[in-house]
Design brief:
NAD(+) binds at residues 178-183. By secondary structure, this protein is α/β, with parallel strands linked by helices. 45% of the residues lie in helices and 15% in strands. The chain has 2 domains: 5-62 and 74-138, Rossmann fold (3-Layer(aba) Sandwich), CATH 3.40.50; 145-288 and 316-337, NAD(P)-binding Rossmann-like Domain (Rossmann fold). It has helices spanning 5-8, 49-69, 91-103, 118-124, 145-164, 181-192, 204-213, 223-227, 245-250, 269-275, 283-286, 289-298, 303-311, 313-327, 331-347; strands at 12-18, 23-31, 37-38, 41-44, 75-82, 108-109, 173-177, 196-200, 218-219, 233-236, 255-256, 279-280. The strands form 2 sheets. Strands 1, 2, 3, 4, 5 and 6 form a 6-stranded mixed beta sheet that branches. Strands 9-8-7-10-11-12 form a 6-stranded parallel beta sheet, with helices on both faces. Strand 7, helix 6 (181-192) and strand 8 (196-200) form a beta-alpha-beta unit. The longest helix is centred in the N-terminal third of the chain and has 21 residues, at 49-69. It binds nicotinamide-adenine-dinucleotide (NAD). Nicotinamide-adenine-dinucleotide binds at residues 144-145, 148, 177-183, 200-203, 206, 223, 237-239, 259-261, 287, 290.
């Protein structure tokens, strides 16, 4: 398999199996230094168990960094269910998963991710109280893309201030790749701020929605056309790996700030961005609004409180960009350092016996 959890720094990795319902799941807990580990459940048809393990280890580590910089008292974890979400998902399987989550007694809180939806979390919640991202009807926070988009907008404003001295996108041309749940809310914030939006999405449904609701948005055929056009900001809001050797070489934007997870295709690409003079607002910093929204549910969801927390992404992004300048490092490295510092400094306090 090539990887053992002991080598990756994870606290705990749990394999869960219920043959009758077909459940095969892995829960990865990277760190509980700041509190219970929070991260969604990805339901995905991995080719192999090794691939599922690799994904949960990467994703749970990422959540620890994201939650730390979002200022949450939560550690980082994630779960994967190995299967086809359309063909294999059932009430029994989700409830079996819920019982495994419950068995961790609060070390891990689950939520939605790719292939799981608020309605699924309502089912999981019948077996465990350590679940967030439930539907509004069940007292949950609902669709997390609302505050994800708000947070991305705040991070973009901070990057605009850093580059141009004004915390606004007014008069700027922003290229949005992906007009899904987050991309469409982000587009609305940008238009309201006075930006010009150019966008692309392969989905006909997404395109007709945007044409009906925001006819002023210009549309282009694909990502290559988008990133080689005259844009000031590039907002990747579709899949991971948007910033690779090919795209960064031709990208014309001054700023990259978007919702997609894992935008940097490989280690080292963050330095290429710096060399090309492109300011990258780290993905996990600016897209933390969604986890802030679902984390708020743990206290009893209050939208205004959650929105206020997501608004602070503006300050956090500014802090990271300033640290990167002072230390002569990339914003991605600066974000990692700040997250590690918080995990160490605040996590250490538990050693003080109370
Ligand atoms: N929803 C959230 O709260 C949240 C939180 C954090 C991060 N994210 C990340 O943000 C990204 C978008 O999430 P979402 O919830 O809007 O997903 P979504 O599935 O609703 O939307 C994704 C959109 O991207 C489009 N797309 C696919 N391939 C594309 C391509 N090559 N070029 C342009 N568009 C393409 C799809 O057609 C779809 O409309 C994902 O990477 C997700 O992991 C989402």
């Amino acid at each position: 398999m090539g990887v053992f959890a002991a080598d990756t720094g994870h606290e705990q990795v749990v394999f869960c199996q219920d043959p009758a319902s077909g459940l095969k799941a892995i829960i990865g807990i990277y760190s509980t230094a700041l509190g219970p580990a929070l991260g969604g459940t990805r339901f995905y048809p991995y080719a192999t168990e090794a691939e599922a393990l690799h994904d949960v280890l990467e994703l749970s580590r990422g959540m620890a960094y994201k939650n730390a910089l979002a200022g949450l008292d939560l550690g980082g974890g994630k779960a994967v269910i190995w299967g086809d979400p359309i063909a294999d998902k059932s009430e029994a399987m989700l409830r079996a998963f819920g019982r495994f989550v419950q068995s961790l007694n609060g070390r891990y809180y689950t939520a939605c991710d790719v292939g799981t939806y608020v309605q699924d979390m309502d089912v999981v919640a019948r077996e465990t109280r350590f679940v967030t991202g439930r539907s509004v009807e069940h007292g949950g926070a609902g669709d997390s893309s609302v505050l994800t988009a708000w947070g991305v907008f705040q991070g973009m404003r901070a990057a605009a201030e850093h580059s141009w001295g004004v915390a606004s996108l007014r008069g700027r041309r922003v290229g949005v790749a992906g007009l899904g749940k987050v991309g469409k809310y982000l587009t609305a914030h940008l238009l309201e701020d006075g930006a010009e939006v150019v966008a692309t999405d392969p989905s006909e449904h997404a395109i007709s929605w945007i044409q009906a609701n925001h006819p002023q948005v210009s549309l282009v055929a694909g990502v290559t056309e988008l990133i080689t056009s005259d844009i000031d900001v590039y907002a990747p809001c579709a899949m991971g790996g948007a910033l690779n050797d090919d795209t960064v070489a031709v990208l014309r934007a001054t700023i990259v700030a978007g919702a997609a997870n894992n935008q940097l295709a490989h280690h080292g690409i963050e330095k290429v961005l710096v060399d090309r003079g492109i300011l990258y607002a780290p993905d996990y910093v600016v897209n933390a609004g969604g986890v802030i929204q679902v984390a708020d549910e743990i206290e009893g969801f209050n939208f205004e409180r959650a929105k206020l927390r997501a608004t602070r992404i503006f300050e956090t992004t500014k802090q990271i960009l300033a640290l990167a300048d002072v230390e002569g490092i990339s914003p991605a490295t600066a974000a990692d350092r700040l997250a590690e510092r918080r995990m160490t400094d605040v996590g250490r306090l538990r050693q003080i016996r109370v």
